[in-house]
Amino acid sequence: MIEILTASEVERARETGRLVGNILNTLKHRVQVGTNLLEIDAWTKEMIEEAGAESCYVDYAPSFGSGPFGHYICTGVNDAVLHGLPRDYQLADGDLLTLDLAVTLKGIASDAAISFIVGTAARAEDLKMIETTQRALDAAIAQARPGAKVGDLSFAIGSVLTAEGYKVNMEFGGHGIGSTMHQDPHVSNDGRQGRGYTLRPGLLLAIEPWVMADTNKLVTDGDGWTLRSATGCRTAHTEHTIAITETGAEILTLPSGPLA
After folding, report:
1. How much is the pLDDT for 67?
2. Which residues sit opposite 30 in a β-bridge?
3. Which backbone phi and psi does 17 adopt, to 5 degrees?
């Protein structure tokens, strides 16, 4: 299913996007060395419920997971890049943490992810990997306009990632979003220009470049959800939900306060 939202629905999507951006920004500032992943999940639940929103994850039970997910946010540490199931783990100085959040407010969903270093013991290679996913996301958004093809966005992402030497996994990528979290079209993290669905005003896309330092192979953790790099290398993931407008693209999941 591909949804094209009305102007009033896009306005509601802006509200949902701000909420997602603000929650992630708040969590980034609150997390510190010693924070437990289950604390992050509890904080997220509290903020979602205070806003009168609903989690897209608690009852999420796709064919590839061991569901339902049962938590409010994905928390990936170091080699865990996607669907990180919150667990009893205290973050250490230098951990690379990925937070992925999707909520629904007033019938419209929004989805975003951030990766950052906990504490002060940052590795240069981790910072480069995070920055590369951010640049790949920016490159895709720059291509997003009416008449562009999904393949144009995928090509932009893949060009940035591969130029830095990262291998691209094609199993999981971005997606359409609207009244539900996951919709068509699929937005892979590499592709060919001029191919795929033609973008139209009112289309919402969750675009999410992610990489693993030295592999493109994933393994599933024993929890049935968390996807880790097959080699144990570190990983990074950046995501925004955007709306296609008459003239380009609008990022919906930016925080309304000072940027992290």
Report:
1. 78
2. none
3. -60, -45
Task: Flag residues of the chain having pLDDT under 50.
Answer: none
**What are the tokens at 30?**
């609150």
Beta bridge partners of 109: 104
| CA neighbours closer than 13 Å in the CB half-sphere of residue 184 | 5
Which residues are known binding-site members?
Answer: 83, 100, 111, 175, 182, 208, 239
Q: Which residues are annotated as part of the binding site for a divalent metal cation?
A: 100, 111, 175, 208, 239
pLDDT given at position 77: 98
Indicate the domain borders of the chain. Answer: 7-251
- Extract the annotated binding site for substrate: 83, 182
The domain covering 7-251 belongs, at the CATH homologous superfamily level, to Creatinase/methionine aminopeptidase superfamily (3.90.230.10)
- Amino acid 260: pLDDT: 53
Distance CA 13, CA 179 (A): 9
Comparing C-alpha atoms, which of 111, 114, 102, 184 is closest to residue 150? 184
